Structure formats: structure tokens, C-alpha cells
């Protein structure tokens, strides 16, 4: 018995390089983590250290799904664009499923 992994594919162009990201659904939390952690302002050194470790872990996990391997200079823009694309894809899926504030209030 095999389980099919649902994934979403994105093509993002950074600095003349087209990156293909074939992101399995189980990796979306890493993108969401990056979205939340990029804007975080740590309160102290320990928080900053933990934040850096969390970001590195998320980037290391996501790198497996990106072809070609990103140029180090492209990572910031690539990640920001990926965060936006994943958020847009989630919004589209929620709309397609018929979920809205109005439909939830009627329940």
C-alpha cells in the first residue's frame, strides 16, 4: 500500500534563475514558521539564538524541495516570495472549499 503525497509546485524567478519548488503539504508548516519568525524581534540573546536555529532548520528542510539549489544571495527573496505564494495558495484552497466568515457564522 502506498500513500500519495499531495504537493504544490511553484516556479519563482530570482536574479535570472528559475527555481522550481515542489512543496509537499507536510512541509507547509516550515514556510509558515519562516513567515512568522522573519518578522520576530527577539527579547534577548537566548531568544535570538533559538530564533536563528528555528530559521536554519526550516531553511534546511525546505532546501530539499527546491531545484536548482539556491544561490546563497537568492535565499532572502526566494523565501519571501515562497511565503507569499503559499499564503495565496492556502487562501485559494479555503475559498474553493466554500469556507468564509459568513459560512462559519451560519453554523
Describe the protein in words.
The chain has 107 residues and is of the alpha+beta class. It has one domain. Helices cover 53% and strands 17% of the residues. The chain is built from four helices and three strands. The protein has helices at residues 28-38, 45-63, 75-96, 101-105, and strands at 7-14, 17-24, 66-67. The chain has a three-stranded antiparallel β-sheet with strand order 1-2-3, with helices on one face. Strand 1 and strand 2 form a beta hairpin. It is globular, with a radius of gyration of 16 Å.
Task: Set down the secondary structure blueprint.
Layout: E1 7-14, E2 17-24, H1 28-38, H2 45-63, E3 66-67, H3 75-96, H4 101-105
Antiparallel strand pairs: 1-2, 2-3
Helix pairs in contact: 1-2, 1-3
